Amino acid sequence: MGIPLQKPLAFFDLETTGTNVMKDRIIQIAIVKVKPDGSEEQYDQMVNPGIPIPEDSSRIHGIYDDDIKDKPGFKDLAREIQSFLKDCDLAGYNHIKFDIPLLLEEFNRAEIEFSLHNRRLVDAQRLFFLMEPRSLSAAYRFYCQKELSNAHNALADVLATKEILQAQIEKYQGRSPEGSDLPPLSPKIEDLHQYSFGNMVDLAGRLSRDTEGDLNFNFGKYKGQKVKKVFEREPQYYDWIMKSDFPADTKKILTQEKLSMRNS
Predict the structure, then answer these.
(1) 94-152 pLDDT, tens per residue?
(2) Which of 82, 212, 218, 248 has a CA-to-CA distance to 1 between 20 and 30 Å?
């Protein structure tokens, strides 16, 4: 594979019940172990997480509760996964921020020691972002094949952004992002808004709406809980937010929610 190895390099990926490292669970783990002699071993196992898989997650990875109801739990597999990864460095895509922390949490719950000591971590996403910077100049070069000579001049940046958007529409029209339920991209401003703003409620992303349309907290100790229920149970939490360093946009939406509770 072109990488000189002194020890096995294990590429791995997880499918999970969600994106909360502390609370969510593994439902599939796949590993390809590349050995120094070039030979490979694979490990692919479905896992019963012990909790329901949210519908939104199932729509992304295609794994539903019925698919894993008869599969072993992580605790039953922990020893063999530990053994398979013995003496391996670890590689993945965005695994340093997500897959590895979640895997460690699962090992901790199973009371199995899994240490990162003496393991090298290789993240293809970080290499991608380092080699393809996510700056306006980089986007202009990628989409328009031009150099932005006056970067950080406001007018030059605006004109470049206009060209980039036009090039993006031409490049992606009729396509949907992989793994997304977004409709195919079109030049309609409504579609461009949906792609850009999505289901965000406030600009800081501190709030979200659940499948019932209710406002939920997207941060802190009440993440994933309905705002109204939290305010009913702990009204001082609203006062704390109003006195804290939250954006005005977030505070305004929460105030509207608070007022709607009085009027209902």
Answers:
(1) 888 899 999 999 999 999 999 998 899 999 888 888 777 888 999 999 999 999 988 77
(2) 82
> Is 29:16 a contact under the CB 8 Å cutoff?
no
Q: Tell me whether strands 89-92 and 9-16 are parallel, antiparallel or unpaired.
A: parallel
62-80 as b/e: b if 16+ CB within 10 A: ebeeeebeeeebbeebbee
One-letter identity of residue 24: D
CB 183 within 8 A of CB 193: no
> Alpha-carbon torsion 171, 181, 100, 82, what sign?
negative
pTM, to two decimals: 0.65
- Least Cα distance to 87 among 35, 47, 42 occurs for 35
Supply the mean pLDDT for the chain: 91
Burial tier of 243 (Cβ tally within 10 Å: 0-12, 13-18, 19+): exposed
- CA angle, corner 206, sides to 204 and 207, nearest 5? 115
CB crowding 104-115: b at 16 or more within 10 Å, else e:
ebbbeebeeebe
Classify domain 9-127 at the CATH superfamily level.
Ribonuclease H-like superfamily/Ribonuclease H (3.30.420.10)
Beta bridge partners of 41: 33
